Amino acid sequence: MKKNSRLWWAAPLAVMLLLTSASAQTRRRIPRPSPHIPTVGGERAPRPIDGVDPLMPQPERGAAHTPLLRLVEPAYADRVSAPAGADRPGPRTISNIVVDEPEPIPNEARASAFLWQWGQFLDHDLSLTETTEDELFPIPVPLGDPLFDPFRTGRAVIELFRSLHDPASGVGLAHPRQQINLITSFIDASNVYGSELERTLAMRRHDGSGALILSDRGLLMYNSPGMPNAGGKDDSLFLAGDVRANEQVGLTAMHTLFVREHNRLARLIRLAHPTLTGDAIFERARALVSAEMQIITYQEFLPALLGPDALRPYEGFRSDVDPSISNLFSTAAFRLGHSMLNDRLLRLDRDGQPIPEGHLPLAQAFFAPERIKKEGGIEPLLRGFAAQRARKIDPYITSAVRNFLFGPPGAGGFDLASLNIQRGRDHGLPDYNSVRRGLGLAPKTSFATISSDLRIQQRLEEAYGDIERIDPWVGGLAEDHLAGALVGELFHTVLVEQFERLRDGDRCWYAEVFDPVTASQLEKIRLSDIIRMNTMIESEIPDDVFHSPPFSPY
Questions:
Q1: Mind telling me the catalytic residues?
Q2: In this predicted model, what pLDDT tens digit does every residue of 90-113 receive, in sequence order?
Q3: Structural domains of the chain in order of their starting residue, each with its CATH number
C-alpha cells in the first residue's frame, strides 16, 4: 500500500489518544496498552457525509438515497411492483401460530443483550427505508384476534404503508420496483454523524473544538433545530445522526456513548495538535469513531453471532466490490435481532443490583428519553446489557414487540413480526426456498429439514401448509443453527456476503485509512473500553461485553 493512499498517521505522541487517558487509567485501575497515536500528515480526503465519493469509479455506490441491492430476483405478483406473497397466509395469522413465544428461551452461547443492542445500533448505521403516505398496504387481522380484534368486528387491520422506491423503477418488466436506502451503506458511524450535511451541521459545535453538542449531564442534544426525527420534530426528543435514536432507551444510550467518544477524541486531538481547525479535528475524530465501530463489529459482534473465522481474511480494498446494503439483508436477515429481544431492560447499579426505579419493561422503553434523563442516565442500561443473556435466535419473539410495539393495540400498538413479514412482501422478497435457490443453497424438502425442533416443525406446517410458501424472515429464523454460530445456513450466508462486501468495497476501511502500526493499536479496542472511558462504569462489566458472565443471575 502506498503512503499516499492512506491517512498516513505514523509517529507516536505522548498523549494517549485511542484507548484511554491518564485520568481514566488511574480511576479504573485496569492496565491497558499504550496506543500508537495518529499525527498530522498527508491525508486523503475523507468520505463525504452523504457517501457520494468523487474518488471512486462509481461515486454513488453505497451512498445515501440509492437503491437497495438485489441478491435474488424479486417475486412481485405482477413481476413489476405488486406485493409478493398473495398465496401465503396473512402475516398476523403466521405471527399468532409460529412467532408467539411459548416461553423465554435463552441463547446457548451466553451471548449478552449487547448482541442485539449493538445489532440495532449498527443496523441504523447501514440502512433506513422509509414509507410513503399514499400507498397503504394494511395487514389483515384474523377475526376475533384477542388483542387486535377483541370485539370480533372482522374489520381490524394493522396499518402499514409501502416503502419509498426509486421512481425510475417499477415501470416495467425490465425495471421492477427498487426500494431506497436513505442513509449510507458503509460502517461509517452515520448513526452518530448523519448522512446529510444539514443534520451534521446542526449537531456540531462551531467553536473550533470539532466537538458535537451534548445537553446537560452529557446526554444527547435535544431536537431544538427541528430536524426530521422518528416520533416527530418535538424538542423533547433527542437529536442524533439517525432519526431513530429515540426508538428505545437502550438505543439512545448507545448513541449517547458514541457522541461522548467523539468528543473525548476531539479533545485529545486538539491537545496534540493545537493548530488544527475545528473541521480538521472533527474529521480526525470521525475517522477514529468509524474505525472503532468497524473493529467492534468485525472482532466482537460478528464472531459472537456467526462464529470465529466466518468471514474470509481481509485482502485489501477492491474498487469492483459494491458495498451497498442488499434488500434481503435489510428486509429479512438482519432482522434476526428481533428474536433475541428481552422483555425487559435490566438497569443495574455498580454493585449489580437494580436501581431504585427498577428494571424497565421493554414495552415502556419506546420513545421515552425522559427515562434516561430522570432515571439514572445511561450507565444502568449499559451494565444491564452486559449482565443479561439474550434470547435464542428462533422464530419466536417477545410479546412486548409482537403485541405492544410502540403501545397497546388500538392505541398505536403494532406487531413487529407481522410488520417484518408484510415488509418482505412489499419489497418483493421471494419465498424462503426460492431465496435459498437464488443464493445457491439446496432447497429444503420438508419442515423437518428446516428445524429439528418438533414444535417449530408443527407450527410451520400449521401456518403455511406448504414448504414453498414460507416467508424468508420466518424460515431463516426457524433453521437449525450452524456449528459455532447462533444462526442457520440462510442467514449465515446472507450476513457473510453482506459484511464481506461492506469491508472489501470501502476505500475508507480502517486498514486503508491508518498506517499499519496505528491500525494494529486500534484493533486492540473493545466496546468495554469505549464504555469505561465515557461513563462512570469501571470493572463491574467484563472486558467481553458480548457474553454475559457464566454465573450471572440474569
A1: 124
A2: 999 999 999 999 999 999 999 999
A3: 3-193+248-534 (1.10.640.10)
